[in-house]
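JOB MANIFEST
job_type = single_chain_structure
chain_count = 1
residues = 370
[input]
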Amino acid sequence: MYFIIIAIIAVFMFLEMFNKDIVEKYKYVFAFICFTLLVFQDGFRWETGTDWDPYHNFFEELTISIQPDDSEFDIGYILFSYIIRIITDNYTVFLTVFAVLFYSAFFYFIFKMSDFPFTSLLIFYMGTVYYMGMNRQFMAMMFYAIGLVGLVNGKKMQYIALLIIGAFFHKTILMGLIALFLSKKLNNIIIVSILLATILIASSGIINKLPIGIFAVLGDQAGDKMEYYSINGDATSMASMILATIRRLIWIVPLLIFDNRIVDKPKGYYLFFNLYLIGTVFYILCNGTILQIIVSRALIYFNIMEMFMVPVVFSLLKPNYGKLIASFVLAAYVTLFTYKGFIGYGERTDYFLPYKGIFINTDYTRQYTR
């Protein structure tokens, strides 16, 4: 299912890069096809994705008599679930409504902000599909996406208001407040200095030497997760640090070097670039440390900005065989890192593979649904 969707979006990406007239003519048809596939994938899934059991069980057991204090979930998600639960007890209906809202917000975001929306959509899919099931955070991300469109157009108060609303679904969205200060171009020397300092700190292993007690201010649940990673996590090895750095810098470096050649920069370009840079810094610092929880959950707000970096890099290439080969490499890159995201939950886990839905692989017995 996942790789069929990648293949279909990749076809639209190729058309977008080499025959933009066709894409402009049939853009809404292509967009509708992609939207329908993604809603089908998310809305009609069953026992597929992370956190299936907690959210499914919560919906099944939800009654109007349950008070907000009775659940560990955020009040916004509880109220949203109430509304759907009053109408129907069918969890597939809930997931479908959820999927329509989520993808509507991000299609609006992508098609407003990207000059190459299908390329951006492909990268967005790679960066989010293996998080499918993080219902509360995905709800918060909807407000983040819509808010960023407003922020790019100078509507700071609207952006802040949407982040506050999103915080009623998942508090990690408040990390997006940093975007208020990132709309300007940073000096290349400053960027390189930040990256070098980040690499030095990460390679020193100093993060794992932080006392666990300082994370108590984040709450018991966060403290417990920090303690788990401090016991089970190793200091970042030089090899993994280098690979992680290359993965993130593969888009940043060309954009720094050829910044002057990007004549028609997309709206919000420097904001999205700086957000991706922040995500890169935190990824390098926290990956494989006691702060792995940040990599696992919070950085998605920054990492998805890759969907705006990739099209700009490809816009620097002339439409020849070299760009065609690079496009196939990009499709392989998306496939590889999507699969890597699925297997990143641990050996022999089957949260995502194979895809199981109400019409597909219905007889498959999922081993892990946590």
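[summary]
The chain has a mean pLDDT of 87.
The radius of gyration is 21 Å.
exit_status = 0
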